[in-house]
Design the sequence.
């Protein structure tokens, strides 16, 4: 973008580029999303809220929230720890680990779900029968759904923090050490404040991603109404069942929350730049 | 002896940063570790601070074995070349950091921070963020921060390296005065021989992981242990396989001075009060060497391009035998 500074495209090219870009975004993103909202309110505001008050829908939202909160918290702790490990320490297999962390980005979530089922299912899985023997049901239950969500959203936090952490350098940490701070004190007082915007940004992104997860959840959950059905699964089932208003209402709520996340992020971005 | 370093060796892969180095750095002194980049001086400083671990050897600080102590238990103040300011904290908070870690009473911290702000002339900047300070101010803040915890030793790693020439000169004079005031054992790393000669009580010359010479600025300048020290501490010029300072060679416009060599001036370069003359020796090799005279001397003898002159080392001139060309 700025690499062409000083050079400006001719006016005609500029206009064509703008029209193509705007048309592209409108056709692919803006219009379809807007239509979801229009359809959600097609039968009036009352019908919209009635659809959301449906017990199976409220249950799905509660479950989605529960899974999202757990997944985000786990990804937060794990993501910060892994980022520190990747940036501040040298160890054998570091590049392999770094590459593995991107697997969730490239592999289809459905495959992730199947993989989890293979390992944790109660009958033939590697750990599943043992865990079920201890009373922990993983597949077709909340733990498995949290695991799937954690897996899918894992790289988002790490990929946000790692570049900020490397740019920050370890000068300040060394200074803190020489001033008498131990490891935890250095982390809480120096490192974390230095990367806080990256952490917040990563959390918001993984929050949006966790809310919208569908493929892996669908495989792992079993999609049992009022038990393991999340909001995205409700949308799919209601749509298939020709219950359009309900499907669009839930979809609109999901889209709204995700957009809210993006708005929050866009407010955070300039502050992050300003800080550095 | 305040800091005793014994038989320290440190390697990075094939590269030997420090090769069996031993040195005693006396209490209360201001010592410079001087040498070219990559010579091992910063590594030695970081090993003393505990920010780096030696492969072998011992470090002893004020009688306490420190070899295996983590940095936070060594009670050393460390000042980094690029300040390492805590960016999210105000100047006052930066300085208070070490005291807060030590859980000193609030009132005591407040008073100490005020004293230190005063000492480094930053009182009016107490509530600013480091990003709002100039480089020189940031480095003074870093110094106050390191001094706040009353360290046994103050270690400075190229403290003025990132500053422009004028600020650097001001700060090093200020550091000298500060040291006379605070009198904490101080070790600083520099590759600038002028800085070391001007500020330090004692200079340790380090090159290629080894100590070349230890001594006061006078001793180092007047009695360099070898040609490396002589070359590193100032300009040199070689006549007959011997190194001289360019200003320790007398220039005559007539022959007959015992031991003088005929030569011809081929270039002159005026830098302020001094004039650097490039002369070609009129012997078999026709080597070009540089001699320095004052502007007044040049004018009185009318030294200029193309004239013949005779060169002789000043009586009592310092020399070192040049190392055989490698």
Sequence:
């Amino acid at each position: 973008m700025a690499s062409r500074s000083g050079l400006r495209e001719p006016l005609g090219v500029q206009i064509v580029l703008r029209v193509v870009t705007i048309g592209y975004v409108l056709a692919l993103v803006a219009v379809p999303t807007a239509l979801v909202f229009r359809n959600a309110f097609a039968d009036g505001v009352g019908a919209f809220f009635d659809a959301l008050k449906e017990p199976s829908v409220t249950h799905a939202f509660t479950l989605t929230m529960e899974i999202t909160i757990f997944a985000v918290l786990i990804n937060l702790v794990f993501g910060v720890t892994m980022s520190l490990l990747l940036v501040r320490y040298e160890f054998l297999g570091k590049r392999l680990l770094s590459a593995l962390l991107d697997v969730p980005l490239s592999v289809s979530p459905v495959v992730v779900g199947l993989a989890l089922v293979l390992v944790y299912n109660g009958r033939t899985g590697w750990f599943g029968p043992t865990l079920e023997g201890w009373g922990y049901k993983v597949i077709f239950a909340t733990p498995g759904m949290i695991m799937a969500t954690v897996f899918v959203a894992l790289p988002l936090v790490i990929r946000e923090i790692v570049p900020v952490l490397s740019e920050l350098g370890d000068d300040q940490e060394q200074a803190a050490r020489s001033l008498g701070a131990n490891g935890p004190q250095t982390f809480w007082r120096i490192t974390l404040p230095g990367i806080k915007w990256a952490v917040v940004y990563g959390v918001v992104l993984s929050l949006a991603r966790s809310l919208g997860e569908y493929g892996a959840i669908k495989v792992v959950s079993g999609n049992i109404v009022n038990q393991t059905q999340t909001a995205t699964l409700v949308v799919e089932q209601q749509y298939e069942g020709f219950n359009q208003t309900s499907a669009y209402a839930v979809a609109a709520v999901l889209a709204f929350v995700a957009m809210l996340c993006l708005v929050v992020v866009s407010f955070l971005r300039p502050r992050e730049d300003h800080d550095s | 002896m305040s800091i005793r370093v014994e038989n320290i060796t440190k390697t990075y892969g094939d590269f030997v940063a420090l090769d069996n180095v031993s040195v005693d750095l006396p209490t209360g002194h201001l010592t410079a570790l001087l040498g070219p980049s990559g010579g091992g001086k910063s590594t030695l400083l970081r090993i003393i601070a505990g920010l780096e671990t030696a492969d072998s050897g011992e470090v002893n600080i004020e009688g306490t074995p420190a070899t295996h102590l983590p940095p936070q238990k060594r009670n050393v103040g460390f000042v980094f070349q690029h300040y390492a300011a805590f960016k999210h904290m105000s100047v006052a908070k930066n300085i208070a950091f070490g005291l807060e870690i030590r859980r000193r009473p609030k009132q005591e911290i407040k008073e100490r921070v005020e004293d230190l702000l005063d000492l480094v002339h930053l009182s009016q900047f107490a509530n600013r963020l480091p990003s709002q300070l100039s480089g020189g101010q940031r480095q003074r803040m870093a110094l106050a921060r390191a001094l706040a915890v009353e360290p046994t030793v103050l270690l400075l790693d190229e403290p003025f390296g990132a500053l422009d020439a004028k600020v650097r000169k001001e700060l090093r004079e200020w550091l000298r005065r500060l040291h006379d005031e605070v009198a904490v054992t101080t070790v600083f790393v520099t590759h600038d021989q002028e800085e070391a000669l001007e500020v330090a009580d004692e200079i340790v010359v380090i090159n290629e992981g080894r100590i070349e010479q230890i001594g006061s600025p006078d001793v180092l300048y007047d009695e360099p242990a070898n040609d490396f020290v002589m070359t590193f501490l100032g300009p040199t010029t070689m006549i007959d396989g011997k190194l001289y300072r360019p200003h320790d060679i007398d220039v005559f416009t007539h022959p007959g001075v015992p031991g003088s060599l005929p030569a011809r001036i081929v270039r002159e370069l005026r830098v302020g009060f001094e004039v650097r003359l490039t002369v070609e020796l009129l012997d078999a090799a026709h080597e070009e060497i540089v001699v320095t005279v004052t502007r007044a001397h040049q004018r009185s003898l009318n030294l200029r391009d193309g004239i013949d002159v005779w060169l002789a080392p000043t009586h009592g001139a310092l020399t070192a035998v040049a190392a055989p060309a490698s």
